[in-house]
């Protein structure tokens, strides 16, 4: 029998693969956005692969004076400029990567108490760091740890102190699945989990009320599944296709090449302990 392992990782090298794709001739002939476009917050641009035509969009934070300068700079370049409602912002959903001072884990769920918002993740993750960020360079802050419980349990809270958007949703790589509430797991139930390392993986619930003896402590009352996971997936959500969250990833055995077993802290217990709701 393989010994269970914790899915938090002390130091993770994040590898980004860039696909090489052919560029249509029309796209190569289109003038790129000006430096002012690329340096103005609230702007975005795309190139239509069929026509090569560039579209620059401006959110509500771009002033009319800025917009006028941008249009002047792009006049005659065959570029469309248009407004879009709202503000461009970074979003954090379940399964997205979160970075502590020495570890990378996954966001389990966004929850709130009144008008105060928190993200839930694994306690062995929050034990490792008081401050959390959205990126490995630690340049985009999320917030600070307000609670952590591990071992015995395996859950913790990070309070949002930034202006990041925090939808009640799961990152399904790609796209978002809206979360409508919570559920209780049952044996044989079809479920999926999302994590920053291995994305979405699906399987079934194989047992309830499991006890896991990790090298650094015992955790009880966990949901067991036949879904694989790897380092960095810790804290990510276990959910149904109907948009109900069931738990957050604690740990497991194996990997996503050979297969594995994973264990989850039930979400209902976490919400009850801290007086939180989803969404």
Query: What structural class do you assign from the helix and strand content?
Result: mainly beta
Q: So what's the CATH class of the domain at 173-266?
A: Mainly Beta
SSE series? EHHEEHEEEEEHEEEEEEEEEEEEH
Approximate helicity band: 10-25%
Question: What does the largest sheet look like?
Answer: 6 strands, antiparallel, barrel
Number of helices: 5
CATH topology of the domain at 173-266: Thrombin, subunit H
Strand content: 35-45%
Global Rg = 22 Å
The CATH architecture assignment of the domain at 173-266 turns out to be Beta Barrel
Strands, count:
20
**CATH H-tier superfamily of the domain at 173-266:** Trypsin-like serine proteases
Shape: elongated
Unreliable spans are: 1-31
Mean pLDDT: 83
Distance between the termini: 39 Å
Biggest sheet strand order reads: 15-16-17-20-19-18
Please tell me about this protein's structure.
The protein has 279 residues and is mainly beta. Among the domains are: 36-83; 173-266, Trypsin-like serine proteases (Thrombin, subunit H, Beta Barrel). 12% of the residues lie in helices and 41% in strands. Strands 15-16-17-20-19-18 form a six-stranded antiparallel barrel. Strands 7-8-11-10-9 form a five-stranded antiparallel β-sheet. A hairpin with a 3-residue loop joins strand 15 and strand 16 (199-214). The model is unreliable at 1-31 (pLDDT under 50).
């Amino acid at each position: 029998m393989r010994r269970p392992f914790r899915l938090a990782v002390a130091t993770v090298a994040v590898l980004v693969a860039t696909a090489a794709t052919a560029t249509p001739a029309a796209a190569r002939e289109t003038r790129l956005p000006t430096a002012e476009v690329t340096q103005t917050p609230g702007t975005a641009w795309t190139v239509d692969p069929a026509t090569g035509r560039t579209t620059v969009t401006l959110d509500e934070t771009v002033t009319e004076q800025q917009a006028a300068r941008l249009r002047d700079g792009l006049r005659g370049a065959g570029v469309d400029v248009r407004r879009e409602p709202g503000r461009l912002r970074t979003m954090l959903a379940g399964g997205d990567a979160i970075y502590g001072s020495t570890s990378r884990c996954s966001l389990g769920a966004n929850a709130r108490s009144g008008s105060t918002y928190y993200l839930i993740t694994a306690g062995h993750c929050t034990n490792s760091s008081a401050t959390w960020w959205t990126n490995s360079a630690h340049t985009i802050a999320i917030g600070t740890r307000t609670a952590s419980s591990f071992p015995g349990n395996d859950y913790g809270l990070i309070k949002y102190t930034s202006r990041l958007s925090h939808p009640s949703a799961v990152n399904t790589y790609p796209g978002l699945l809206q979360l409508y509430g919570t559920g209780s797991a049952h044996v044989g139930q079809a479920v999926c989990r999302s994590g920053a390392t291995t994305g979405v993986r699906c399987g079934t619930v194989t047992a309830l009320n499991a006890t896991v003896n990790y090298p650094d402590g015992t955790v009880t009352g966990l949901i067991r599944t036949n879904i694989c996971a790897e380092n960095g997936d810790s804290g990510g959500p276990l959910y149904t296709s109907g948009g109900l969250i069931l738990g957050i990833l604690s740990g497991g055995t194996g990997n996503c090449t050979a297969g594995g077993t994973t264990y989850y802290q039930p979400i209902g217990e976490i919400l009850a302990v801290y007086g939180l709701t989803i969404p």
